[in-house]
Amino acid sequence: MNILKLKDEITALKEKHNAIILAHNYQLDEVQEIADYTGDSFGLSKLAASTTADVIVFCGVKFMAESAYILSPEKTVLQPDLKAGCPLAESINPEELQAKKEEYPEAAVVCYVNSSAEIKALSDICCTSSNAAGIVNSLEENQVLFVPDKNLADYVAGNTEKEIIPWDGCCATHNAVTAADVHELRNLYPDGIVTVHPECRPEVIALADHVGSTAEMIRFAKETDSEKIIIGTEMGTLYKLKKDNPDKKFYLLSRELVCSDMKLNNLEKIKAALETMQHQVTVPENIRKAAFRSLDRMLQVKTNKTSYCQL
Ligand code: SF4
Predict the structure, then answer these.
(1) Among 114, 177, 265, which residue has the most ligand 1 atoms within 8 Å of its CB, making it the best to mutate?
(2) Where do the domains of the chain lie, and which CATH numbers do they carry?
(3) Helix (H) and strand (E) counts for the chain?
(4) Which atom of ligand 1 is nearest to the CA of 174?
């Protein structure tokens, strides 16, 4: 189908249903282009809750659409492709977390927002990749069970006096970057500056010049004087980085930095979602309320930063 016609049809359907399209920074370029807002998962969910739109088309993976619903259950939250899951979020289930909590009854449970609604519901508080250390340091408990990302847990452990007990999960996409990749790119671009996501391995983080969430990387790229920036996060982020900084050069740390789940949504599926009002993402009310408490408790700590961008 003609791409311009497809975009026009999506725009008309958005108006008909009072809908907005939210796209995570890792989505295909064509999806980010048509989105009303791009950003990271929690920034987009907060935005979903504050908009007057009745329908949210969330182009990301399942836990993100769930978070949008948790914060705004009165809205219809659509996920264009239900197969888009997150292997990191799926690396822990409620039974496993319950067993771990019984093993460490004194520990506070902190869960990264890249987790299912059930895991959020069983946790004391949520965190994002940008506020994780601040959230952990705000707690009274000295022992913290940190789920599900072991690399983010390790990064937090380096920024707190508390004992961190990590869950053994990781994002396969970010975990694929190696220290050898950093050395190779530094050799190729010796005047380049390296920024990586905290889901990367500790040895990669140790070699970087800057560590941050995707939203922080986007800010960093704008602010740095360096004109060559080596990027350690999913390749979709290059869309916004290049758009914001046409005079700078960006280099991906590894060809492995592609999340196949994030690439499942496309324009045809967005159009189908708006035509059929499918696939609706909801969360049972008891789980939603408990998960909301964990997210809301995080917001009360006030270390979080705005993390979405209006296009
Ligand atoms: Fe999950 Fe990693 Fe893909 Fe993000 S990039 S959705 S954390 S697997």
Answers:
(1) 114
(2) 3-85+262-280 (3.40.50.10800), 89-170+288-300 (3.40.50.10800), 177-252 (3.40.50.10800)
(3) 15, 13
(4) 2
Q: For the segment 33-73, what is each residue's pLDDT rounded down to a tens digit?
A: 999 999 998 889 889 889 999 999 999 999 999 999 999 99
Q: Which atom of ligand 1 is nearest to the CA of 87?
A: 8
Query: Which pair of structure tokens corresponds to residue 197?
Result: 């996501």
pLDDT in tens, 224-250: 999 999 999 999 999 999 999 999 999
Q: Which residues does a 6 A CB cutoff place in the pocket of ligand 1?
A: 26, 61, 86-88, 114, 171, 173, 234, 259, 261-262
pTM (2 d.p.): 0.95
Which tokens is 6 given?
Answer: 């497809």
Distance CA 226, CA 221 (A): 8
pLDDT surpassing 60 at residue 210 = yes
Q: Which residue has the tokens 């939210």?
A: 22
CA–centroid distance, residue 171 to ligand 1 (Å): 6
